[in-house]
Amino acid sequence: MLSQLILDIGSIWSKYGMVYLTGIGNTLLLAVTATLIGCVIGFACGILQTIPYTRTDLWIKRFLLKLIRIVIRIYVEVFRGTPMILQAVFIYYGLPYFTANAVRFTDIWTVSILVVSINTGAYMAESVRGGIMSIDIGQTEGAKAIGMTHLQTMLYVILPQTLRNIMPQIGNNYIINVKDTSVMFIIGFQDFFAVHKMVSGAVFKYFPSAMVEMVGYLTLTLVASFLLRKLEKKLEGKGNYELVNTDQLVMTAGTYSYPDGEAPFAEKNREIGGGNNE
Length: 278
Hints:
Layout: H1 2-49, H2 59-80, H3 84-98, H4 108-134, H5 137-145, H6 150-180, H7 192-203, H8 206-236
């Protein structure tokens, strides 16, 4: 049976290999693009949710920040709490239905990127918010003490550390997107999984084609995991440091011997010229 499976896979690949590769390319392009856009959405939402305000601030500022947080919370809960396949159906088929075709998308790529991006952004929003809140409050207070604004503190102090801390979550979302783009076949997107359905329907060999899919997806995720671990280690920097015990520019008090045997600020009784009074 194993030999027959290998023969079937070989015959399918020889005939439809380029079609599979095209599907892999579409899957990677969609996953990378949507993950990047989702990260931008997530960082924007995370930053907006952590803007501080007090009772002494203007009421309009407090009102707008509260309203923004409510909107972001609704967005996060809706897109985290519903399947991506239904989100694609709603945006592609539901918007024309409710607007009498006034709002509709004709480009499958646009809809697919939009759906996967906003879904990723909903997950990243909470990751970024948690990452920002995990940074020690003393760093924010220190930045304010030297005159940095909230925006400067975020850009130069908080966000670089947040990015390093949530990098595993970003990688995890990318790997999820590589697999979950398969649901976009519901609106006609030709990704790796859609190619499998087309080929298996053409040759009536579902399991051999599914094996090609399984190996393909596993390869994509393993390569992504390897590259992401390399990136994480690079962001962490060196794992060990040498402790400098002696600084040649800093001398311990009392160890320096001056040429004339006196400290530079010692009181002198000699007259200028070095002669003695007689």
